[in-house]
Write a structure and sequence with these properties.
By secondary structure, the protein is an alpha/beta fold. About 35% of the residues lie in helices and about 20% in strands. It has two domains: about 30-190, Rossmann fold (3-Layer(aba) Sandwich); about 205-295, Ribonucleotide Reductase Protein R1, domain 1 (Orthogonal Bundle). A six-stranded mixed beta sheet has the order 7-6-5-8-10-9, sandwiched between helices. Strands 1-2 form a two-stranded antiparallel ribbon. Strands 3-4 form a two-stranded antiparallel ribbon. It is found in: Cytoplasm.
Length: about 300
């Protein structure tokens, strides 16, 4: 039996007058949050389960990164979790700078809901609180120091969770060291978890299709089914880029994540075959250059 993770429902058998219990089985998961296990092995690491909404937290000040945001969106949508983006520390930037960040998110084709947050003024915290419904499970995803723990304290109305010292740059120290499930007063459940340095992709085709639906829509209009979206005639994606309707960086991110997912999804013999084929191309190129210099 696989080990349970935070958010799992399990069937147990109590003993020692209820002081201890043994897990008999894990109930089927309705959703999941997972990533490729750090290291060389192409294996999943289950992070949490049975989550209804994932709050993806990014700081407006030091942490904002659209490409990382896309990775989080792929991860959540692949696990059948609804994403909501929270932009924290809005008090550290001007209203004009905030509008620029919001525009960059929309320009990247990201259509998830975005809520600006300030843990100093309390802006947006009540909006998040109103989204949390009884009987549903939510989680906070984001890098270390973006204000997740402070936000949790604001949502529970207490200072039960310790927060780190905030530097002059606005970057807080990482203080959450384990995933924990917190019961809120209104009956909602909130999972706080440490910041994840690695967000490796593994077999996330469903999440990619959902997060990059704009790219998929343009690709379906290409003249050729096997279009590489580079120089082929009738490429709808290149036409959209030329017209300013599609961000080329958004396309590059999609292609990178697709290659990463497909590579890590290969079996070991498939990877060795691919590496050998690439090695032959490199050797042939070096040899050809050597002949050209000899001439």
């Amino acid at each position: 039996m696989a080990l349970p993770c935070v958010g799992d429902w399990v069937r147990v058998s109590y003993h020692d007058a209820g002081a201890h219990a043994s897990i008999l089985d894990i109930q089927p998961r309705t959703s999941f949050l997972r990533r490729r296990r750090p290291g060389g092995n192409a294996e999943f690491q289950m992070i949490a389960a049975n989550i209804d909404v994932a709050f993806i937290v990014q700081s407006c000040h030091f942490d904002f990164n659209v490409r990382r945001l896309e990775r989080y969106l792929v991860m959540t949508r692949d696990g059948h979790i609804e994403p909501v983006i929270l932009l924290t520390k809005t008090d550290l930037i001007s209203p004009e700078a905030l509008e620029d960040l919001l525009a960059s998110i929309r320009h990247a084709g990201i259509n998830a809901r975005v809520i600006p947050i300030s843990n100093v003024s309390g802006r947006g915290v009540e909006t998040v609180h109103e989204l949390i419904q009884p009987g549903k499970t939510y989680c906070l995803l984001g890098s270390s120091g973006v204000g997740k723990t402070t936000l949790v304290n604001g949502l529970i109305g207490k200072s039960d969770l310790a927060t780190g010292v905030v530097s002059h740059t606005g970057e807080g120290r990482h203080t959450t060291t384990r995933r924990q499930l917190i019961a809120l007063e209104n009956g909602g459940l909130l999972i706080d978890m440490p910041g994840m340095r690695e967000l490796g992709m593994l077999d996330v085709s469903e999440g990619l299709d959902a997060s990059f639906s704009d790219v998929e829509a343009y690709a379906s209009r290409c003249r050729f089914a096997n279009c590489t979206h580079t120089r082929e005639p009738g490429c709808a994606i290149q036409a959209a880029i030329a017209q300013g309707a599609l961000d080329p960086a958004h396309l590059q991110s999609y292609q990178k994540l697709r290659r990463e997912s497909e590579f890590h999804g290969m079996s070991h013999p498939e990877k060795r075959k691919k590496d050998r084929a690439f090695g032959k191309v490199v050797r042939a190129t070096i040899k050809a250059k050597g002949r050209w210099h000899d001439d």
